[in-house]
Amino acid sequence: MHLERMDKILASRTQYSRKDAKKLIWQGRVLHNGKKALSPDVKIDLDTDTLELDGKPLLIQKHLYLMLNKPSGVLSAARDPKQPTVLDLVPETYRRSGLFPAGRLDKDTEGFVLITDDGEFAHSILSPKHHVPKTYHARIDGPLTEQMVEEFAAGVVLEDGVTCNPAQLSVLENGEQPLCQVILTQGMYHQVKRMFLAFGRRVLWLKRTAIGGLLLDNALQPGESREILDKEIKMLLGKI
């Protein structure tokens, strides 16, 4: 059972301040379990109760987990004064204070971004010691060799001398610009691009397709997002 004051929940799950949230309750615009809310200090059970504001249900669970299909040209950041960020793409229904992208994709990289307000869970996804795999599809500007596959598996040495953790590299489509799959368990800056650059290959297109065992939902168009289901949480951690 997770109990919180009604006005605190409204302020954290909407764009309203705590003071404005109290006014909404007093104005009769909030329903608690289908009935008009009477007081801002009523305790709400986040696991079982329901709240509605102006006839629209609010997502009041303690934490929110979203799968977003990031398009190219958008920053993996909570906010930026000049450029669009992944949080700008989150629908109003899901917006609440404390949301952030768990990990970053380069501005020109597409695909799966986890957005949440659960810092502890995000750490478990991102920490190298937990070895949660991230899967990418990459289009490169030259042929893939067996040597590259072997060195990815052993741990690529980057141009600056840094040695990466072992990774899986495989070909999805052959050709002059093959499509490859890369599975990593760490997340260094520009890592996939730097790994291929160590072999003189340039990444032309890059997309994250999975975190842990959870695949990016094919139904999500670029810029769209959806809630991650309870049964999918363990998949994110690579436990299924």
N-to-C CA distance: 26 Å
The unreliable regions are: none
CATH class of the largest domain: Alpha Beta
CATH superfamily of the largest domain: Pseudouridine synthase I, catalytic domain, N-terminal subdomain
Order of helices and strands: EHHEEEEEEEEHEHEEHEEEH
How many separate helices?
A: 6
Quick one: biggest sheet?
Answer: 9 strands, mixed
Bin the strand percentage.
Answer: 25-35%
What number of domains? Answer: 3
Topology:
Layout lengths: L2 E3 H8 L4 H9 L3 E3 L2 E2 L6 E3 L5 E3 L2 E2 L7 E6 L29 E2 L8 E7 L2 H8 L7 E7 L5 H9 L13 E6 L5 E6 L6 H7 L5 E9 L2 E2 L9 E3 L2 H7 L4
Parallel strand pairs: 9-13
Antiparallel strand pairs: 1-4, 2-3, 2-5, 5-6, 7-9, 7-15, 8-9, 10-12, 10-13, 11-12, 13-14
Helix pairs in contact: 1-2
Describe the fold and architecture.
The mean pLDDT is 92. The strands form three sheets. Strands 7, 8, 9, 10, 11, 12, 13, 14 and 15 form a nine-stranded mixed beta sheet that branches. A four-stranded antiparallel beta sheet has the order 3-2-5-6. The protein has a two-stranded antiparallel ribbon with strand order 1-4. The longest helix has 9 residues. It has three domains: 55 residues, Structural Genomics Hypothetical 15.5 Kd Protein In mrcA-pckA Intergenic Region, Chain A (Roll), CATH 3.10.290.10; 84 residues, Alpha-Beta Plaits, CATH 3.30.70; 79 residues, Alpha-L RNA-binding motif (Alpha-Beta Plaits, 2-Layer Sandwich), CATH 3.30.70.1560. Strand 8 and strand 9 form a beta hairpin. By secondary structure, the protein is an alpha+beta fold. It is 20% helix and 27% strand.
